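Reminder to self: keep the SMILES exactly as supplied, no canonicalising. Ligand is zinc ion.
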Amino acid sequence: MNDESINRHIQAVAIQFISYRGDIRAMASFIAASMGDAAPDIELLTNYLRKPEIHEELIKWDVGIWRNTTGDWSLVSLAAPSSIEQMRYRLEHFPTSNTQCRWCLQDAKRLAHIELIPEKDIRGEPVDNSWLHKFCMRPWLTMRNQVARAQTAPSKESLI
Ligand SMILES: [Zn+2]
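Structure tokens returned for the bound complex:
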């Protein structure tokens, strides 16, 4: 069961929180609050959020949702920043700890080697201190490609 009206509110909550980590029932209650009177039962909503096929579907909505090794859940907005400048800023700044995901900044701590995967450069070499969740890697690489393309695009002057 894939429900667009629920997905729209999951997306809204993900955008509002940007990066949330906690209990799945708390997550369901935020989504129910967003839905108001149209909200289904919390139990039903929690079950909906647990389904792997819904996690796949939500990628199309720029939403990452997954269960961490420790048993809690993450809800992350996978939407890219709106400008190249903001994207470049994100690419140039590193989190305070190298056990944090560079996209969502959630800290995997001692489980970083299990939960995060290294970013690879165009030659396939790992990028120093750049680790990301599987779900966060795709928007990160898309952002990296967009910035690289903007840098190599000919400027107006060179076209004259
Ligand atoms: Zn992440």
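Points to follow up:
Residues 84-152 form one domain.
The helical segments are 4-17, 24-35, 42-50, 52-59, 84-92, 112-115, 134-152, 156-159.
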